Prior knowledge:
Elements: H1 3-47, H2 61-122, H3 127-141
Helix pairs in contact: 1-2, 1-3, 2-3
Amino acid sequence: MGASETLNMIFRTLSYRSAALDDQIERLKRANRRLGREQAEALHAIRRLTQPETGAHWTGSRARSFQRKRDDAQDRMRARMTASIDGYQRRIESKIRELRMESDFLQSTGSMAREAGRMLDRGEKAADALERNLTSIKGRLF
């Protein structure tokens, strides 16, 4: 395979991988936003647990016991829901950072490939440098 064909293959691979990464990042961002909306809705639903207010007519030990149990249930639900969604969001954000690092790697590899293309345009004088550059790029991608 000649240098030109190798370079074309490299550019196609970079383009494909970059598009796939961009798609993954966008899907993760959408999932993260959806989780945020669901968390807000769940917190609103949890707040409704304390409605209706027990008011002044609810007095005595049974009323206090009921209120404590309701408050405990609300606290447990909030903690459980918040911890699980926050955990999912942290994992999503971590994966987005990982994918962005990979995207940065592909961009730097693309810079190397563009430089290799310039060498190819310069002709035979740069053939050895071009071959070393292409070998380095292929080592990074394949």
